[in-house]
Amino acid sequence: MTRSSRWRPSMTEPWLSVIMPVHDGGMWLTETLASVHAQDAPGIEVILLDSSDGDACERIAASFSGKLDLQYQRRTDLKSWTVKTNAGVMSARARHVAMLHQDDVWLPGRAAALKRAIRTTPEAVLTLFPTQIIDAAGARLGSWRCPLPARRDLSAGQVAERLLIQNFVAVPAPLIRRDAWLAAGGMDEALWYTGDWDLYLKLARQGIVRYEPVETTAFRIHPNSLTVSGSRDRSAFVEQMVQVVDRHIDLIPPARRESVLRCASASVRVNDSLAAAARGERGALREGLRALLRLNPIEMLRYWYNARLGERVLPRVRAKFAGSF
Q1: Which residues pair with 147 in a beta bridge?
Q2: Does one domain contain both 143 and 6?
Q3: Which partner for 160 in 209, 216, 251, 288 could form a disulfide, CB atoms 3.0-4.6 Å apart?
Q4: Is there a single domain that holds both residue 281 and residue 168?
Q5: Of all residues in the chain, what percent carry a pLDDT higher than 90?
Q6: CA terminus-to-terminus distance, the chain
């Protein structure tokens, strides 16, 4: 079923298209849309693709009539977030796009930071930002940063040497040039967990990447997130990560390729063991530890720096102790 509505007169030329794949997200959606509206920044279009079973999200979207240039698409035929996101980018009118999931939010100053990035480096195909991590109630749990040099033009090899070891990019944070997204072929819709990670590496092949070290978004962790639900099938979870590493390891110069591959493979095992341990599987952490101990000291340091392990794990520990995870 496809139904589309635009609840505010369409602007002739938006400077940014925000793509929102939504499914039964009524619990968070009002706060998410309100965070975009609060930017008070004309020229932003929001494209919301809704595959929900009920009409709660449609009613929430309609409540922003007159507040946002919001194109609502009822797309019960599109189930995965990767499929909906690709469809949203295809219908986007702006030169730049950003992703925003139903449970994440923009922080004050996000729109201004994106405008500044476009003005400063319009040729960048991908601009990355750090993000806050928040819990189900919106309380700040920590920061998630990118291990990249700030405000420099970065090549595909420079980005891949770090990014292949761990996806350190939260979905709501990047700014992406739409033409580069399309040239890269968009998201691989079969990658239900690592589609964004694969996309960032494909985009890096298209041109320069920048890192702006200012938090402009908040990434919410909660028990119903895709990371939690998707990792229950361990073999499928691991395969999602292995595919990305195998596809893009060629970006690493031959002299360092084997070492980076060992770090990336260890990281996959650590991620799997952490997810299994979080579900209560006894002995799972030992598997990840054994994988790390196979690395030499230099590789261990490379893993630790690029994996951002503390920044990813400690917020979840805090949330669990607070009873919100």
Answers
A1: none
A2: no
A3: 251
A4: yes
A5: 83
A6: 34
Statement to judge: residues 18 and 43 lie in one domain? yes
Statement to judge: residues 91 and 215 lie in one domain: no
Instruction: Identify whether residues 134 and 252 lie together within a single domain.
Output: yes
Closest to 14 measured CA to CA, from 127, 74, 93: 93
8 Å CB contact between 110 and 41 = no
The β-bridge relationship of strands 69-75 and 44-50 is parallel
Give the three-state DSSP class for 115.
helix
In sequence order, what are the residues at sequence separation of 6 or more whose Cβ sits closer than 8 angstroms to the Cβ of residue 249? 164, 257, 260, 261, 264
Q: Tell me how far apart the alpha carbons of residues 309 and 223 are, in angstroms, rounded to a whole number.
A: 19
| Helix locations, 149-307, DSSP H | 156-163, 178-183, 195-204, 226-230, 234-248, 254-278, 284-293, 297-307
Closest by alpha carbon to 143, among 156, 134, 135?
134
pLDDT (tens place) for every residue of the chain, 325 residues total: 567 776 666 667 899 999 999 999 999 999 999 999 999 999 999 999 999 999 999 999 999 988 999 999 999 999 899 999 999 999 999 999 999 999 999 999 999 999 999 999 999 999 999 999 999 999 999 999 999 999 999 999 999 999 999 999 999 999 999 999 999 999 999 999 999 999 999 999 999 999 999 999 999 998 876 655 555 688 999 999 999 999 999 999 999 999 999 999 999 999 999 999 888 888 889 999 999 999 999 999 999 999 999 999 888 877 776 665 5
What CA–CA distance (Å, rounded) separates 154 from 203? 12
**Overall domain count for the chain:** 2
Do 279 and 232 form a contact (C-beta atoms < 8 A)? yes
Instruction: Please give the model's pTM, rounded to 2 decimal places.
Output: 0.94
Task: Looking at the structure, tell me whether residues 200 and 285 fall in a common domain.
Answer: yes
Range of the domain at 65: 1-103
Q: Does residue 228 sit in helix, strand or coil?
A: helix
Strands 140-144 and 96-99: unpaired
